[in-house]
Records
---
Amino acid sequence: MGQAEDMAYDATELVVSVAPFIVRRRARWSECDPAGVVHTVRFGDYVISAADLFRNHLVGRDWHLRNRTSGFGSPAKALSLVFQGSLWPNDPFDIAVFVGDFRTRTMDLLMQASRHDGRPIFSARLSSICVAADDRTTSQPWPAHYADCYRAYAATHDIPAALAATRP
């Protein structure tokens, strides 16, 4: 194996593409129940982690740090998952990230996880809300720079028909 393949195999999580944005993951034993099946709650962790990596890429630096220094936060408002397959220890899989609806104060990231042979594992929708950093109970419009970044990505990366059809 070459160095890139070794890294992808040894890593728990690795960005393998930015156009479209794809995170390659490997399920770990510690994420499984005694029967060797990945716990349901771990899928939410996979989604949040892929979203963080995507946002870091999109805005060019640590998403959470940039939020604080820009005067806003972006907590999750909702998370929806549709399961299409199971995962077992050491299973590699890819999570493709797409921008769904982008509204004045909220937005959706859509994700499709699949095995390397293309079989789907899950689809997800992560909805975030823009809030004031000093009062996380007050929503506010997304800063223009962020809205521009999301809309530019959405304009050049269409949501695949299969994901659009199974939107959670």
---
Amino acid sequence: MGKENRFGILKEQDKKFRTIRIRAPAGNLNSKELALISSVSGKYGRGEVCFTSRLNVEIPYVPFDKLNDAVSELEAGGLVIGGTGASVRAVFACKAAFCPHGIINSREAALKIEEKFGGRKLPVKFKAAISGCPNNCGRAQLNDLGFVAFLTPEVLTSQSCDGCGLCISVCKEDAISLNDPKDGISIDYSLCVSCGDCVRACKKGNITPGKKGLHVYIGGRAGREIKSGILYENEISEGDITDFAGKVIDYIDDECTGHERLCSHLERVGIEKLAHRLG
């Protein structure tokens, strides 16, 4: 099979050209890899590079007769061509590894899924995203499988609050109140979204980390049809992400046929069978 018929090679409006898609694990490439992509783009394309919504990299305008040479040069440099077709697509991860709002290292979690399942052929495409905090930059609900990290704050019974108000200033939900420093702060958990920002803001240690984990959304999608994923009934821990993703991927492999995405399948048969597998 020629390279033009494989995953990661896309047709263009002008049939003389192809676009090469390069998988960027969890949206990250190092400077050496970027330099190689730039070099190949200039050598075989028009010197242009673009990025997909899943943070993969594409080199457009590669002439059909130069395609094999361009791909060979990229692969020789250790880059992986792919991220298309009925397969486990690149896992989207936000920048929680260094973002001040990050609760978990979403990049590390995404890489574990990539290492175990990335590129695996399936009956239909599978897209996953990991958001490292409730700001949800990964738009988790619009993926076949999405994770959103949370950290619920807890308030000490005996506080040494000095009334600085830092916790109140960082709370976008107005869930924290302080009437008198002597009485300490209180949190309205009906408003709190468990972002954990107040935990990091409190210099006195009056607000401490409570429950930490991830909300899971199953069966979402974007594109021609917009479907919001179903909120799974159980929260999971950071260490469970890879195994949980594997169970969903196996289910898709076994149960989804034709062009039926997971969201359509679940609308047809319900989530009970998948939930049973998830435990």
---
Amino acid sequence: MNQSQSPSGRFKIPKYDMRLGPDTGGAAAAIYRQYTELLYTLTFSPEAAAGFRFHSVTYQLPRAAIASVESVAQTLNRGPTEIARGGNQLLIWLQLSGESDANYAGRECKLRPGDVVVLDYAREIFVRAPDFASIYVMMERNMVPPVFHAPLTHGTLFAADSGPGRLLCRSIESLFQTMDALTLAEANVALDALITMASGMLEGEMARRTVSEVSGDPLLDKALAFIDRNLARLDLTPALLEKSLPLSRSSLYRLFEPLGGVRNAILERRLERAMKVLLTSTAARPPLFIIARDHGFASGKQYSRAFRARFGTTPHQFYDMVRSKDSAALAAQAERFGFEGLQKWIREQI
């Protein structure tokens, strides 16, 4: 459907209404599978396949889309193979009905009605869903603030009974329900407002997660939180921190002196966050290029060199120890290189 002009002269937003099924012969499910498997590996139970149905309404903006979806029970998996096929958008997903079991790059959760979750197609996604309904906003990477790109953001869930969850849920529903009455310019402004609000919620959530890591110095904690939000940026340098806090260069260097300097603190946090990805990944082999990109390394080789210099082993060798649950070797690495996070993971997982 093409963009059209209303009687009042206002240009409507392109809208696409797709219905497939109810289907007992398999034709509708085959069409659904054809376009879904551009992003995921899709499986149905025999019962869901026999009664397949699907309905979506999509509003297409220049750099984003907002859509409602209803369908039958299904399992969706997006691992390294599917990621390599393409698609690197970001999503804000609102669950309207159905309780789904999900694993977002190692972060397990149950997605309930009213919950809102932020997802990154550049990272692993596994969802086992019953019959469900949802609304989602899909955005290009270059239209959102840096906090959306942070590795810790993927899979961040705002529960339906939380203040941020309620506010995001109502805002997403209201935006979708109002799209027919908005011009393209008005919709873009409304979408920017939603993204700004979600960005603020994400920053608050990331600050809450790191409360156990506070240093006792509010300014240093603020600087470390800025680093965590911007780990993927190649230009995350002392100069950027100096500009963003703001601080003089001499004050910035004094602030980070207990941590071995600004550059050392940035590298340490990049490597520790990247190690956590290796600890929680379900892939047969770690996607080093994606891990490197998500944590601000210019290449997989640069990441591997830095990892080995810090932890005494390559990422592949370390991942093999994780997959085989070689607790003795992992404990030796943790003790030798003083990595408390790894020691805690060994105690909890092995």
